[in-house]
Amino acid sequence: MEEQDRPSNGSKCEKIMKRFCHTRLEIGSILCLALVFLGGCAAVGPDYVPPEKEVSSRWHTPLKGGLAGESIDQEALSQWWRTLDDPALSRLMEEAVTGNLDLKEARARVREARAKRGIEDAGLFPYVDASGKITRSQGSEETGAGTQRTLYAAGFDAGWEVDIFGGIRRSVEAADADLQASQASLRDVLVTLTAEVGLNYVEVRAYQTRLAVAEANLKAQEETHQLTQWRFQAGLSDALSVEQARYNLENTRSQVPTLRSGLEASLNRIAVLLGKEPGELHKKLASSAPIPVTPMQVAVGIPAECIRRRPDVRQAERELAGQTARIGVATAELYPKFSLLGSIGLEALSLGGFASSDGLTYSIGPTFSWRIFDAGAIRQNIEVQTALQEQALVRYESAILFALEEVENSLKAYAEEQNRRAALQQASEAAQQAVKLAQNKYEAGIIDFNEVLDAQRSQLSFEDQLAQSEGTVTTHLITLYKALGGGWSEMTGE
Predict the structure, then answer these.
(1) 88 class by beta-carbon count within 10 Å (0-12 exposed, 13-18 middle, 19+ buried)
(2) Structure confidence by residue, pLDDT tens digits, 85-139
(3) pLDDT digits (tens, 9 = 90+) for 156-172
(4) What is the DSSP letter of 335?
(5) What whole-number distance in Å separates Cα of residue 190 and Cα of residue 486?
(6) E strands present in 74-213
(7) 3-class SS at 137?
(8) Dihedral, CA of residue 215, residue 217, residue 219 and residue 222, to nearest 10
(9) pTM for the full model?
């Protein structure tokens, strides 16, 4: 062949490109038609509508003890511990948010849910695979086909499931709801964490206060015991008074180890909540400090505000939304699935043959599959998903009732404990006066020692109960903040 008659490499490449462009136009036309058709098709299965749960317009428990039905300051509620005005508690909260292990696990679950959502979303788009191979083969000499040859091949395979009936879209919808549910779960962990840190911190301060009360009474009772010994030695009292003073003293002393054990447990619990080893916070909290004082007024809003804010209620609602979408995923299995498959590539017996238009191969075309018979398995799966949706709805309604119950109980407990604290304050002051009077009368010989012992025991009991009640008032407030869904902000879980 003459040189001018041979097709140039440029003309070969032009032919390949023309055929490739023609193929792309065919693929593009089919894809456009599929998109137009898809755009007019609604996803099968029920569309999710958030359930409307009517709740009371006000709390059943009368608002007393500084409680007010005013609208809640959401920013203040997100950091409720600042209302207690305790710098040490605020520092512990900051450490807990960064170090708690449960919170780290919850954050990892959010990342997992976000990645799963991305996997489901990828199903809406085509996939493209690239492949290439070089194979060397030789036939059998016995058959006379013992020729050796090498085959070079390279190409792209593509496919796309046209989501006509919305099965993939419902999967994405479910994954979206799962992601939002995991974010709500993270917020719920944060609500529980901040409450637990606050409760254990108050316990630490309450134990320290009770220890101080016990030690002060020990000192007073030691002085009383010494006094009875002097009076006995002087012949002014009998040995019975000495022994009575001694067992009263030792009884008080026996309470100290229990208080120290409780203090140790609370300190260790806070350390673990902060992601630290037990014992790491002892130096920081070794110095006694007063029990945090509750604010004069606490806004609690209305039940509807609580329902909207509670992360556990939000999580239950998002789980219901996700399960509703899964009914659509199951329903889509009743219908045929349509896909577009295509491939384009080059095959040649030599590397130089790749430049030839004759080496171009391609295929394109729609396919569909339809499960005609499965003995009712698909419909049974739809029934399964529907039943799971009903269960999710019940859990959502239960979460609302549980939230309202928690708030109502906390409102009552907080108000009533303040009444108890006021009564114990009066009793403690009266007991202190009674001890002074009893000691004076005993020293004057007007009364016997039993009345002094009774007065001292009453003083210790009332002062210890008062310290416990002061801590309980604050813990009830923390429990109320937790019940209202305090401890997280809108940025948490994103």
Answers:
(1) middle
(2) 999 999 999 999 999 999 999 999 999 999 999 999 999 899 888 988 888 877 7
(3) 888 999 899 999 999 99
(4) S
(5) 9
(6) 127-138, 148-162
(7) strand
(8) -130
(9) 0.84
